[in-house]
Amino acid sequence: MWKPADGIVLSVTDRNTLESWSRATTSTQRLSLRARILRGAAAGQPNNRSARDLGTSRPTVLLWRQRCAAGGVAALRKDAPGRGRRPSLPAATVQAIIRATTQTTPRGGTHWSTRTMAKAHGVSHATVARIWRAHGLQPHRVRRCKVSRDPRCAEQLRDVVGLYLNPPDKALVLCVDEQSQIQALDRTQPGRPLKQGRCGTLTHDYKRYGTTTLFAALNVLEGTVAGACVPRHRNGEFRAFLQQLDREASADLDLHLIVDNYGTHTHPKVRRWLAQHPRFHLPCTPTRSSWLNLVERWFRELTTKRIRRGVFKSVPDLIAAIQESIQVYNEKPKPFVWTASAEQILEKVSRCKAILQTVD
Q1: 328: which of 69, 258, 304, 310 is 20 to 30 A away, CA to CA?
Q2: Residue 358 placed within a domain
Q3: Cα 300 from Cα 225, distance rounded (Å)
Q4: Rounded to an integer, what distance in angstroms lies between the CA atom of residue 92 and that of residue 98?
Q5: Which residue has the higher pLDDT, 307 or 42?
Q6: Same domain membership, residue 164 and residue 121
Q7: φ, ψ for residue 259, nearest 5 deg
């Protein structure tokens, strides 16, 4: 006869943990079995009876009772070193796939797919997918990046971010830019309407009836937008838009207009006009850093919600649609809130530059 099993004393927390492990559908089979073994031991159940009821062996029951006594309930999650299934793929093959993914490109292509990599190394595409997933590799994805080489990048960035985070007193901060060449497009065939189980359709080709340019100014504090559509994109149209802002803004406020260094904004005639209107201040974003201008975020709203899927049979129809969108947006404006400090952005820029230098 076997010696009667010693009782195991568990806390209420440990009992609840074992019960959740044994009942949870997401637990592994081995963890669920170990939890049921310990629950039976805590209830004073003999080892041979536990083994018979759970369909396992008595040595297995004794093993996990000992593991629990030595390391607590948490020991049930751990396997002894060297246990489990041996890797079916040599480590050298795994390293070769990782090295090829990160340092080479396939013949006639720019990046590897699971199947091209599998064919090159004589494994299945599912194996390649598992290796990539385990090492965080995604060759099919790319993140767009452009680092400004403007020598005044840090200075201009601090000026712009400072206006977002700490705007001056008695001043109005406006993000100003233009979206040029907005096309009035009509589809060659009517689209099918949206219905249950089927999305709407648009033809891939179109008829082009002309273009317009939208000058827009986003009020950083209130989130409202002032806009004007003009046929062309020149310094004269930009000065006319500045005059519009001058008329609409309160006379006792300074106007800080965040713009880029495009030639229209820095034209000598524009500079002379600004000299005659000292309440206007035009801090520029660094070269190739238009993402600093919050009005670009609003342009995205306009494009995705009104223009991209719109049908316009003439330029006046397009202009009317843009003006309607501005009017609707200003009824319930929602400001875009800038949270990143200049130091945080400069740190990311420095990391990007270091990576580019490494690649070069």
Answers
A1: 258
A2: no
A3: 13
A4: 10
A5: 307
A6: no
A7: -130, 175
Segment 226-245, tens digit of pLDDT: 999 999 889 999 999 999 99
* Domain match, 114 and 159 both: no
| Residue 99: domain span | 91-134
Q: What confidence tier does 21 reach under pLDDT thresholds 50, 70, 90?
A: confident
List pLDDT tens digits, range 121-134.
999 999 999 999 99
Give the mean pLDDT of the chain.
88
The answer to the question of residue 82 being in a domain is no
Q: What is the pTM of this model?
A: 0.69
Q: Which residue has the tokens 């796939």?
A: 97
Same domain? For 210 and 337 the reply is yes
**Contact criterion met (CB below 8 Å) for 102 and 132:** no
Answer yes or no: is 144 within a domain: no
Beta strands 254-258 and 225-230, pairing class: unpaired
Query: Which CATH number do you get for residue 249?
Result: 3.30.420.10
* Neighbouring residues of 346: CB distance < 8 A, sequence distance ≥ 6: 154, 157
Q: Using CA atoms, how far apart are residues 131 and 114, in angstroms rounded to an integer?
A: 10
Same domain, 166 and 189: yes
Residues 6+ apart with CB under 8 A from 41: 5, 7, 8, 47, 50, 61, 65, 68
DSSP lists the bridge partners of residue 229 as 214
DSSP reduced 3-state for 198: strand
Cα separation, 360 vs 147, whole angstroms: 14
The answer to whether the CB of 338 falls within 8 A of the CB of 297 is no
Same domain, 328 and 189: yes
The string of DSSP codes covering 258-290 is EB---TTTS-HHHHHHHHH-TTEE-PBPPTT-G
State the Cα–Cα distance between residues 222 and 219, nearest whole angstrom: 6
How many domains, in total, are found in the chain?
A: 3
If you count them, how many residues does the chain have? 360
Does 183 lie in the same domain as 307? yes
